[in-house]
Fold this protein.
Amino acid sequence: MLKETIALYSPKVEEALERFLRKELAQARELSRFHEEYYANLKEYLLRGGKRLRPIALVMAYRGVGGSDEQASIDASICVELLHNSSLIHDDIIDRDELRRGGPTFHAKYRDWHRAVKASGDSEHFGLSLGILGGDILFNLGFKALAYARFDEKLLVKALKLYVEAYQQLIDGVLLDTYLPLSEQVEEKEYLEMVRLKTAALFEKAILIGATLGGATDSQLKALSSYAVLSAQGFQIQDDIIGLFGEEEEIGKPVGSDIREGKMTLLVIKALELADETNRNRLRKLLGKADLTREEVEEARNIVESTGALSYARQLAQDLVKLAKEKLREAEPSLTKHSMAFFEELADFFIERTF
């Protein structure tokens, strides 16, 4: 059900996204050649790939509560993909990343563009400036895509409130994620709160936007909200596990990146809690070490595994997904069978994936 649904709706979302961006590009063309090129680069960035799970989840929530105008829901669904990519452009700046989906990050593209066309000047600053603006534009375009969707205005106002709440919570989550490595001691509940904001918020609001546009009951909205947060927390724990114990060929980046960046993942938090003094001190020294060697990554892996932190994290992810599926069944009236099966399989995929 999951694969079939993704295969069915991913091209439809892609088509709606491409159509929307084509119109924006046409408007930019009237401003200047630079605007036209800039919006063309935004379009290229957005269309590099991805499963489009958030828009598909929006559509499936809409259908799950009885929504009938499928094309309208697909057109509205691109709002969360635009918002997601807005956050990615800004994240790439914060993380100083150079690559995204097989191509240059947006700020890196414009840094290199500036170097090519101008012999003097601060190309680094130019790239960062154009990246910040690009993220801002995509946030606004997402708002626009939703605001002009073919739905009753009262429903659109509710949906737009969810859209801006998603961005606010996402920013609050990034703030917390940035602060936690500076804290003397981080607890599991702080990590889960950070994930609720940074990772779960956009997934949750995508689902709630779809359900709201479909005329969901309060019971359905509550059940879908709980499901989304719990399953997304399970997703992030699995992501942390893959980041340290996965294969570089599958994940597309060096393993141990979270250790190098000093991230307070659940694996690290639990390992620091359970380790003896020697291993605790050693893990602290490895955290945030930018030039971490493969041998040191293996050392961190051994500490995390030997303390039982890895087993603990895997079990917690499974427990969160199990609870998420239970919450999903509390919706009154029940979601359609197709949507129920999709969301249950999606939650299982979150913690079973290896990339």
